[in-house]
Design a protein that fits this description.
Layout: H1 9-16, E1 20-27, E2 33-36, H2 38-44, H3 53-62, H4 66-80, E3 85-93, E4 97-111, E5 114-123, H5 136-143, E6 147-154, E7 160-165, H6 168-171, E8 177-178, H7 181-192, H8 198-205, H9 207-215, E9 220-228, E10 231-241, E11 249-256, H10 258-278, H11 289-305, E12 312-318, H12 321-328, H13 330-347, E13 353-355, E14 360-365, H14 367-371, H15 373-389, E15 395-401, H16 410-430
Antiparallel strand pairs: 1-2, 1-5, 3-4, 4-5, 6-7, 6-11, 7-8, 9-10, 10-11, 12-14, 12-15, 13-14
Length: 431
Amino acid sequence: MQEFKDIGFISTILKEARFGLWIYEVEKGKPSKLYLNPPAQKILGFDKSEHSADKIFDKWFERVTENTKDTAKRAIKKMKDGNFAEVQISWIHPVKGEINLWFGGMRESDKQGVKVYKGMLRNVSEQKSVSNGFTFFGIAQALCRDFESVYYVNTKTGKYKEYISHGNFKEFRFQTEGTDFFKESIENIPKAVYIADQRRVIDFMSEDNLRPAIKARKTIYVRYRIVVDGKPLFYRLTATPSVSEDKNHYVFGVQNIEENVKIEKEYSEKIRLATEMANSDALTGIKNRLAYEKAEEHLNEEIKTGTISPFSVGVFDLNNLKKTNDKYGHEVGDELIRDAAKLICTTFTHSPVYRIGGDEFAVILIGADFFDREKIFAKFQKIITHNKKNGRVVVASGYADFVFPNDKCVGDVFEHADIQMYENKKKLKKK
């Protein structure tokens, strides 16, 4: 006995929309069988207990009115030829009399000599015509409107058929059906896919990549670009398992996502700018205290995991800011802060510089600056000595190296550097 498996909310939606499901089986030398789920039985007025599957088909076909019997036969033949078919016929309901009945479906699979067809039916008597009604094909078109191409593929045999083709993909004139979907798809890649993305799409379509996903019935996708009128546009190829009971079938859909990518880029740029602003000091344009705390957190994690590279922390303090503000005003004081930031940045060119307070700065010395730290700080102090003599910006400084295992975190290194900075500050005041 053929059974209709519950497919969750889809079954609920179909039931609410008054659709019934049917399965038609044909085996050579045996009577045709028609199975109906409960909503379909209700639509046709058939009681499951009264009719066996091998009698329901005959009973259903007997009730097709004479003037629409040929229409029904043509639809059935179209399904037998492997195509989707939908049709509206007049049908004699055992209680309601003549009704307008819509049914649609397609050949699903062949199993051990049995041809299996599946589809839906609905009483559309209240509709003037099925073309203006709520049809399965109409639903499919609505759901797939964003796809330029949709293929139904037997992943076991490679046999495929295209059901939707429009937009840019239609212009490439690819085959609409064939016997080796994966081989033919790979052969078509150079005809449409942007050269920089071809290898990624070929790898995606390879048997080694698809086999595990298909076996696990997973939905997978790849994003790439195709060339349209000499311009690369973003597309996405999605492979998703068919909801049918036959686990060999997958649906491959090609979707133009150019507009989505533009929105993503705009959003990413806004996030980048917002992040940059959140981590930047408004007055000087260098990194702020928040950025320093994030860097400190990252370094602490590396210390904890034992993956830390050599680094030093430099601490700086601007002299005479309060006196300048009191005597000349905050605008002149702000200019002094900017001069200090510029001086530190132009000296420590390979390390991030942070303003961590009103007149306080910090530098995390990494890479080239770390290995040249003694030379760089000597140069910086020489500049400061010159500035002090010429009435320019004066900045006290000090630094300390991370020493394992004595230092447990960046805070320990900062504390040592801060002590050195205050020693330097005392010397500058005496000079």
